[in-house]
Design a protein that fits this description.
By secondary structure, the chain is mainly alpha-helical. It has two domains: 38-74; 77-180. It contains six helices and no strands.
Length: 186
C-alpha cells in the first residue's frame, strides 16, 4: 500500500520537477560562496572569542573590586563604638592596657599553690570580656547609650578590682607561707 502512495505522489508531481541543468561554472561559484562564508564565520569566531575573554576578565576584575570595597566598608565593632562614643574608645585603651599589665603580673605569680585561683580568675575575666562584647553590640544596635556606656565602664572596673583582689590574695598567701616557714626551724 505504501508503494502505491509513493508512486501516486511521483506521478502527481511528474511535471513539476526542476530538471534543467545549472549554468556553467555553478559549482565554482557555489564553492567560492562557501569559502567566503567559512572565512567570515572563522573571523567572527576569532572576534567572539576575543570579546568573550575580555568580558570574562572585566567581570572578574569588577567582582574583585566590589568584594574589596565591601570588606573595607564594614567597620569593626571597635570602630563603630568609637564612632558612637569616642570617650569609651579612649577609656577602653587605657583600661585594656591596665588589665593586660595586671594579667601579666598575675601570671608571673603562678605557683602550684596559686594555680587554681589564677585559672579561676582568668575564667571570670573571659566571662567579663564576653559580657563587654555583648554590651558593645547592644550599643551598636541602638540601646540606651548612657546606661550601656555606664555598664561598659563598670565592666572594666570589675575586671580591675577582680585582678587587684586576686593579686592581694596571692600576696597574702605568700606572706603567710613565708611567716609559717620562718616559725619552723630544722
Amino acid at each position: 500500500m505504501e508503494k502505491d502512495t509513493i508512486n501516486n505522489l511521483f506521478t502527481n508531481l511528474q511535471d513539476t520537477f526542476d530538471i534543467e541543468e545549472p549554468k556553467e561554472g555553478h559549482q565554482n561559484r557555489f564553492l567560492e560562496k562557501l569559502q567566503e562564508k567559512n572565512s567570515a564565520v572563522a573571523i567572527s569566531k576569532k572576534n567572539t572569542s576575543w570579546w568573550k575573554s575580555l568580558s570574562i576578565a572585566a567581570s572578574i576584575a569588577l567582582l574583585g573590586i566590589l568584594v574589596i570595597a565591601g570588606l573595607h566598608n564594614n567597620p569593626t565593632t571597635k570602630e563603630q563604638v568609637a564612632e558612637i562614643s569616642p570617650e569609651v574608645s579612649q577609656s577602653q585603651v587605657y583600661f585594656a592596657s591596665l588589665i593586660e599589665d595586671q594579667i601579666n603580673e598575675l601570671e608571673k605569680e603562678s605557683t602550684p599553690e596559686t594555680k587554681k585561683i589564677i585559672e579561676d580568675t582568668l575564667f571570670q575575666l573571659n566571662k567579663l570580656e564576653t559580657n563587654y562584647t555583648n554590651l558593645e553590640q547592644d550599643l551598636i544596635n541602638g540601646g540606651n547609650s548612657k546606661l550601656i556606656l555606664s555598664a561598659m565602664i563598670t565592666n572594666f572596673q570589675t575586671r580591675i578590682d577582680l585582678l587587684n583582689d586576686v593579686l592581694t590574695q596571692i600576696e597574702t598567701t605568700k606572706n603567710l607561707k613565708n611567716t609559717h616557714d620562718e616559725n619552723y626551724t630544722i
